[in-house]
């Protein structure tokens, strides 16, 4: 999940690289570094910690500028976040510099081989092995691209590698396996990066690289081959968002900006889903309707917040389609020998499309003969590419490490998928589907209403930032919302927070409740009487034990007020769609608490945006 950038072209490479690293810092911020080819030799600078440390270093000890260079932000896997372990890594004779994202699983064997030849390693990383191997090939006379292909064939695991050669000031060579790599095609200049955000200010024309491919890039063009040197085709595409979408737009945090973008993000995810006959069409779904009618089980697989979106989806999909639906954490799925057949539909949910645990689940499911649909936010990323079909959420780039608009758009996309399956299988009439769609289309306006009335939740957050422990309770689709509320608080405010099904509390966790503990409760809309009343009983249970209750409830629900210390009103929505509204105050709460506590909200400790290791 490190950030990778390579540049060749007329501009000064240093600024291009550092600007690109800033846009990719969310991918990892344990260290940053750059290397350039200047006057036939390599110059480099690298520093542990955030990019600002590297910038300070470049100011204190400037290095020569050049027209070719590579840059890296690191999320540490092998070796501590130190200057020595920072990338780029240089070959022993300082001829080749290389950056790496991923994990080289056979690095120990390769390192031993190189050490036996007398090469001394300066870092503890697996990545330096690749730098030394490419360097060895180049010193022995191979061209940089041939060297890269030879080395890539020997590596096991996941990698994006980009290398430069001090003797070749015009050439970048990159390779990928199970790790993202995209080429940016500018006017007389070229880029390689792990993410288009890195070069979006220079060009919106990109080329997607396939698995086990190597690309040779000069200022004038690029050439893609497989690892044996046979020419292959990258897949060109146009990036439909621009630089402003990747910047903070006046907010203090990307996360806050992304929370406020949710009405638009959800609206765009719902956009253009009807054909002329008002039938739902999901044109990225390349599985035939006949095939979808044979499905006898759905398994949703995802991680973290995306997993919680899957939990919401289960309630809707089972209700609308009557197909049994399981939801499973991706890292558990593959290792328990799940029962998957050709009649199983596996739905993966991933904002980044690069999450290794989810990707491995996709592969496992397809090996078992299942069809896989990916719900994903990142065009051209690995998970959709390896799936049978994809339903893109159109949230735009999500930069804050904690997922917000990613979650809401995933939930919206899951509803679309559920309705589409109901239409295909005839488990809902057309007018019933249209009614849900009409309500869905009203949700962006209601999310905006929630956002317009957040003063109370912001105040609440400021007053509660000193509390050590929080509980979140919900039932039905309110349960995943509770889990998501707790996760947000854990990951950005570093506070102890737990989400529980409200009815489960009395089976153990209620022992956590003592005087003054904040307990957030998501109350389902009235009309699902039993559910609503049961949650009111659960609120009474915790309140009787001294909890300070913060209750999220639909407007006009007067029954709950007597049991709430704080009442947060939500616009009216049907039970199944309520998560699109109820999640929002919890996101704002966590963002505000973390801000008050002085944490880096966009880059919480120990986390990275795109988790490309298992
Ligand atoms: C939490 C969060 C993570 C991700 C998870 C999956 O705020 O962002 O839990 O949801 O790592 O990531 P994607 O959706 O990219 O597969």
Q: What are the defining features of this structure?
A:
614 residues, alpha/beta, eight-stranded antiparallel sheet, seven-stranded antiparallel sheet, 25 strands, 24% strand
Q: Percent helix among the residues? A: 25-40%
How much of the sequence is in beta strands?
15-25%
Q: What's the main sheet like?
A: 8 strands, antiparallel
Bound molecules: fructose -6-phosphate
Span between termini:
11 Å
Number of helices: 18
| Mean pLDDT across every amino acid position | 93
Tally of strands: 25
Category from helices, strands and their pairing: alpha/beta
| Alpha-carbon Rg, integer | 25 Å
Global shape: globular
Q: In what order do the strands lie side by side in the largest sheet? A: 3-2-4-1-10-9-11-15
Low-confidence stretches: none
Q: What is the secondary structure topology, with strand pairs?
A:
Elements: E1 3-8, H1 13-24, E2 31-38, E3 41-48, H2 51-60, E4 68-74, E5 89-90, E6 96-104, H3 107-116, H4 127-139, H5 144-154, E7 157-165, E8 168-177, E9 182-185, E10 190-193, E11 205-208, E12 213-218, E13 221-226, E14 231-232, E15 235-238, H6 254-260, H7 262-270, H8 289-294, E16 297-302, H9 304-321, E17 325-329, H10 330-333, E18 344-350, H11 356-367, E19 371-376, H12 382-385, E20 389-392, H13 405-425, H14 430-452, H15 455-464, E21 469-474, H16 478-493, E22 496-501, E23 518-522, H17 529-543, E24 548-554, E25 566-570, H18 579-596
Helix pairs in contact: 3-4, 4-5, 7-13, 7-14, 9-13, 9-16, 13-14, 14-18, 15-18, 16-18
This protein binds fructose -6-phosphate.
């Amino acid at each position: 999940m490190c950030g990778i950038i390579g540049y060749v072209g007329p501009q000064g490479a240093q600024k291009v690289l550092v600007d690109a690293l800033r846009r990719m810092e969310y991918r990892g911020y344990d260290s940053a570094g750059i290397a350039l080819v200047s006057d036939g030799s390599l110059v480099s600078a690298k520093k542990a910690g955030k990019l600002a440390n590297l910038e300070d270093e470049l100011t204190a000890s400037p290095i020569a500028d050049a027209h070719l260079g590579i840059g890296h932000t690191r999320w540490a896997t092998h070796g501590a976040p130190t200057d020595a372990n920072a990338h780029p890594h240089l070959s022993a004779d300082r001829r080749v510099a290389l950056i790496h994202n991923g994990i080289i699983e056979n690095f120990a064997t390769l390192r031993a081989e190189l050490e036996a030849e007398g090469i001394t390693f300066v870092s503890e990383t697996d990545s330096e092995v690749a730098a030394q191997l490419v360097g060895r090939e180049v010193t022995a006379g191979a061209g940089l691209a041939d060297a890269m292909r030879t080395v890539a064939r020997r590596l096991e695991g996941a990698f994006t590698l980009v290398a430069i050669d001090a003797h070749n000031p015009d050439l970048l060579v990159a390779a990928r396996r199970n790790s993202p790599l995209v080429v940016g095609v500018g006017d007389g200049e070229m880029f390689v990066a792990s993410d288009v955000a890195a070069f979006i200010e220079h060009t919106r024309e990109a080329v997607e690289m396939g698995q086990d491919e190597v690309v040779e890039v000069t200022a004038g063009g690029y050439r893609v081959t497989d690892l044996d040197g046979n020419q292959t085709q990258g897949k060109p595409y146009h990036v439909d968002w621009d630089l402003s979408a990747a910047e903070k737009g006046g907010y203090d945090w990307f996360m806050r900006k992304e929370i406020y973008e949710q009405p638009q993000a959800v609206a765009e995810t719902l956009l253009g889903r009807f054909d002329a006959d008002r039938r739902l069409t999901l044109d990225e779904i390349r599985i035939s309707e006949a095939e979808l009618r044979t499905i006898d089980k759905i398994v949703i697989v995802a991680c973290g917040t995306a997993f919680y979106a899957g939990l919401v989806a289960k309630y809707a999909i089972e209700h609308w389609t009557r197909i049994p639906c399981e939801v499973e954490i991706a890292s558990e799925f593959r290792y328990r020998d799940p029962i998957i057949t050709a009649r199983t539909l596996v739905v993966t949910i991933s904002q980044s499309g690069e999450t290794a645990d989810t990707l491995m689940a996709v592969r496992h499911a397809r090996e078992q003969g299942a069809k896989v649909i990916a719900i994903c936010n990142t065009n051209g990323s690995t998970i959709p590419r390896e799936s049978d079909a994809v339903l893109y959420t159109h949230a735009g780039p999500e930069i804050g490490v904690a997922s917000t608009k990613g979650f809401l758009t995933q939930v919206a996309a899951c509803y679309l998928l559920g309705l589409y399956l109901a239409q295909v299988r005839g488990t809902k009439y057309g007018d019933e589907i249209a009614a849900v769609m009409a309500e869905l289309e009203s949700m962006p306006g209601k999310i905006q209403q929630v956002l317009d009335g957040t003063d109370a939740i912001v105040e609440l957050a400021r007053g509660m930032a000193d509390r050590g422990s929080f509980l979140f309770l919900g039932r039905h689709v309110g349960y995943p919302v509770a889990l998501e509320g707790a996760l947000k608080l854990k990951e950005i405010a570093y506070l102890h927070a737990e989400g529980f099904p409200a009815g489960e509390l009395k089976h153990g966790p209620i022992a956590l409740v003592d005087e003054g503990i904040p307990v957030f409760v998501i109350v389902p809309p009235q009309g699902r009487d039993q559910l609503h009343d049961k949650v009111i009983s659960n609120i009474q249970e915790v309140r009787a034990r001294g909890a300070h209750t913060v209750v999220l409830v639909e407007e006009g629900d007067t029954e709950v007020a007597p049991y709430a210390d704080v009442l947060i009103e939500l616009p009216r929505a049907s039970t199944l769609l309520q998560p699109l509204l109820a999640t929002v105050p919890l996101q704002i709460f966590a963002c505000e608490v973390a801000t008050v506590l002085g944490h880096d909200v966009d880059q919480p400790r120990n986390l990275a945006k795109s988790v490309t290791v298992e």
